[in-house]
Each structure stands twice: as structure tokens, then as C-alpha cells.
């Protein structure tokens, strides 16, 4: 059995493919922890462009559509949320930072103020896990049959 070697005009291409495959195996995609940004990436330059007196239309041109809005009486607010997350290969997620840019508008849809909130500004609340039972939802098929007798 003889070994053949690649020669001729395809030798450099074959060598380049072998090197690319070998280097591709060494990427960081096999790391156990990956970082990513969820939501809007808030840049300092975009924040600096938002000033009192500007219209909602100009704010949407600079920042894009808000992720959340709030209207209370004559005033409204737009919220842009950026969350930086580390996730392990096993599916466990950890929040590194969260930044919320809030832009407040008056009744004429002009910017009144803006504020930046971080994780330290938030408060942890306890979620209620109890459920209110509804008719027929929690009974099994056999329970329903026995109930009808």
C-alpha cells in the first residue's frame, strides 16, 4: 500500500485548509463561560446626544425604539435596558451588570430629564409562588369522573 502526496497546483490550497481546520479547533468557543449583552447596548455618545427640550421623534432616531414605556398622567418615560450576562456551558446564568437609561417626556412629548439606573439602584422583591385555584383546573380526570357521581 503506497501513500500518495498532494502535489501540483492544489498543494497550497490543501495545506491552507489543513491549517485553517487545525486553528479553528483552538478557538475560545469551547470555553466553559461565555459573556453576552442582552437588550440595548447603551453608548456614552448616544446618552450625550439626549438633552432636555428634544422631541420624542429625535430620541427615537438617536436611541431607537424603547424596550418599555410608561405613561403616568401628562408625563411619559421610555426605558432602554442593557444587561451583561455570563453563562456557563451548563446553562447557569449570572448577571454581571444591568443599566437602565430612562428618558422622561412632558405632555408635549419633549424631553424633560434622563436618568441612568444600575443594579445597585434596584430592589429585590419576593415573588409570590402560591396560585389561586380555578374551577376544574387542578382536578385529574378520575377526580372529575368521581365528582360527577
TrEMBL record:
* Gene Ontology CC annotations of this record: Bam protein complex
Which parts of the sequence belong to the Outer membrane protein assembly factor BamE domain?
A: 39-112
Alphabetically list the UniProt keywords. Cell outer membrane, Membrane, Signal
Q: Which GO terms describe its biological process?
A: Gram-negative-bacterium-type cell outer membrane assembly; protein insertion into membrane
Query: Is Isomerase among the key words of this record?
Result: no
Which GO MF terms does the UniProt record name? protein-macromolecule adaptor activity
Q: Does the keyword Membrane apply?
A: yes
Which InterPro entries did the record assign?
BamE (IPR026592), BamE-like (IPR037873), BamE_dom (IPR007450)
Q: Name one Pfam family in it.
A: BamE
The name on file for this protein is Outer membrane protein assembly factor BamE
Amino acid at each position: 500500500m503506497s501513500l500518495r502526496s498532494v502535489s501540483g497546483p492544489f498543494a497550497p490550497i490543501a495545506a491552507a485548509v489543513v491549517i485553517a481546520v487545525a486553528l479553528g479547533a483552538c478557538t475560545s468557543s469551547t470555553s466553559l463561560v461565555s459573556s453576552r449583552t442582552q437588550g440595548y447596548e447603551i453608548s456614552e455618545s448616544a446618552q450625550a446626544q439626549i438633552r432636555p427640550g428634544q422631541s420624542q421623534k429625535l430620541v427615537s432616531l438617536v436611541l431607537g425604539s424603547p424596550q418599555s414605556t410608561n405613561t403616568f398622567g401628562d408625563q411619559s418615560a421610555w426605558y432602554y435596558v442593557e444587561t451583561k450576562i455570563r453563562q456557563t456551558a451548563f446553562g447557569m446564568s449570572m448577571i454581571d451588570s444591568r443599566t437602565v437609561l430612562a428618558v422622561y417626556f412632558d405632555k408635549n412629548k419633549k424631553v424633560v430629564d434622563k436618568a441612568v439606573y444600575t443594579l445597585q439602584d434596584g430592589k429585590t422583591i419576593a415573588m409570590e409562588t402560591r396560585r389561586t385555584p380555578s374551577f376544574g383546573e387542578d382536578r385529574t380526570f378520575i377526580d372529575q369522573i368521581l365528582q360527577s357521581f
